[in-house]
Amino acid sequence: MMNMVNRARGYLELSVTGVYPEGFINACAIRGVHFWNAGRIDEATFRFQAARSAYPKLEALAREQNCALAVLRRQGLPFFTMRFRKRYALLAGLGLWLLCAGAMGQFIWDIDVRGNAAIPDETLLQALAELGVRPGRYTGDLEEREIKNSMLLNVDGLLWCALNIRGGQATLFVRERTEPEPVVPLKEPCDVVAGEAGVLVRLDTLAGAARAQSGQTVEKGQTLVSGLIVYAEAEPRAVHARGYALARTWRDITAVIPDSRREKRYTGRTKTRFSLTALGRRCNLYRRDSLPFDNCDKITHSYTLDAPLGVRFPLRLVRETYREYAPEEARVPEAEAAGLLEACLTERLGREGGEISALRMAFENRNGLLGVRATAELLRDIAETRYFTMP
Q1: What confidence tier does 300 reach under pLDDT thresholds 50, 70, 90?
Q2: Burial of 373 (0-12, 13-18, 19+ CB in 10 A)
């Protein structure tokens, strides 16, 4: 750490020669002049290092002790920069660079959107452009609070947003609105019915009168919990029936895929093109716009130039690499096809909800198609609400 500090402030490597050089070293210690890496060269000479700012004191002490002080080497950042003090063109270029970097930081050159999932980037960028936030716009007259409020009013589905502009980079952070779950009107009378056919495994009645029991086979739409409670010596009372009905249900679904697929065999031929993009405009550094190969993959890399202090230049270099391939028909291994079909059907059953308690699959290869038929038993809640009106 001290080595980095010494290099930043600059230091000297010195030699002191005299009849009694030890007296000079002792005088430096008594006067509090700091030095380091001291060592004897011969009987009359010492070599050491000291800070650049301590040289006048060292020179005065050398005269007092009748010693000769010599500078062997100058090290550190100050001495390095002094080499360029007469190179006016270099200093002017550095000053112009800093001036341009500072000036460019006052304009927007790139816009990024983060946090959105349902709202497309194009919609948010278009809304920003209508409010004046576009590449090349001066940032000094932009009111971020007004832009935020206008975005919330103009873009549907936004819950919160914030605009951060720094070094020519504008970043819009958004949070989308989620629809609240519907409120259940607990005061309206209703029944709990079976949403599909199945065999009841468990029926929990939270409100209302049970009309079915565990182990019973129920049809779709059959009443499981009635919201009309009948008393022997009083008038019937309608309530909002609630219940949980766990039942065994069955699904029979199929899926097919071809027994062959199209694969790519790369030929080894490639083509690279470059283009420049600035302020949303593209300049191609090649002549022909058509694809170099009939069948090829396109791989795009983008490079931006960032200056110090977080300033981003509006120029972007785009490299596009095209890899030629020859399409070939290949057979799909039955084991791989069976795994894909099984994963597809399992995912579909998972979207149904509930727990898969039993699953049986049958595979078949017919007329160039690989198919699978899945018969699954699901344990799921089949309770649904059906409102009614008292007569």
Answers
A1: very high
A2: middle
